[in-house]
Design brief:
The protein is an all-beta fold and 177 residues long. It has strands at 2-5, 10-14, 19-24, 29-35, 40-45, 51-56, 60-65, 71-74, 81-86, 92-97, 101-106, 112-117, 123-128, 134-139, 143-148, 166-172. The protein has a single domain (42-172), classed as YVTN repeat-like/Quinoprotein amine dehydrogenase (Methylamine Dehydrogenase, Chain H, 7 Propeller). It has no helices and 16 strands. Strand 3 (19-24) and strand 4 form a beta hairpin. The chain starts with a strand and ends in a 5-residue tail after the last strand.
């Protein structure tokens, strides 16, 4: 797996199942190395290029700070995370797991702010819309769902996480032969 941060001139190489290398393109050298305990499933740069988020079969979603190499493990995670994605302003991370559950954390506090069952099978992909008000999730159940997450701006500072997000549309896939 390789992802490239165009603005930041950084590339992330997955050197092995568990080892990530962050390369500075302009300096042609390894800038950081990060290690999970098991196979890495997903990687994503924050929009400002200061962090990456990764998830792994080690049941951890981790935010890695590129400046100093520090990290924050987002908990709780009782199942296997398959996908992880920052929202565009970098304040939240969404993750989907192997049983169809979606979770969202506040990046600054590390607290879980929302979790809900969104699919019947593993969540393979996530993306926030440019306005940050919607989250699209794709799954092995053959569906792409669009969720209203506009309430995130008021979540994550105090209180319990919400356990429900409104599904606002659904695309049901089919096999092309």
């Amino acid at each position: 797996m390789v992802i490239y941060g165009y603005v930041f001139q950084l590339k992330i190489f997955q050197v092995s199942d568990i080892l990530l290398q962050i390369w500075s393109v302009s300096q042609r050298r390894v800038r950081n190395m990060f290690k999970h305990r098991n196979i890495v499933c997903s990687l994503n740069f924050s929009s400002n290029g200061r962090c990456i988020v990764s998830c792994s079969y080690d049941k951890r979603v981790i935010i890695w700070r590129l400046r100093d190499g520090s990290s924050r493990v987002l908990t709780p995670y009782e199942l296997y995370p398959i996908s992880a994605r920052f929202n565009l302003d970098g304040r939240f991370v969404a993750s989907g797991n192997n049983e169809g559950k979606l979770l969202i954390w506040n990046v600054r506090t590390g607290k879980l702010v929302a979790s809900w069952w969104g699919h019947s099978r593993l969540v393979t992909s996530l993306v926030f819309t440019p306005d940050g008000k919607r989250l699209l999730s794709g799954s092995w159940d053959g569906e792409v769902k669009k969720w209203d997450v506009s309430s995130l701006s008021s979540l994550g500072m105090t209180g319990r996480p919400t356990s429900y997000m409104m599904e606002i549309s659904r695309l049901i896939g089919h096999t092309v032969r």
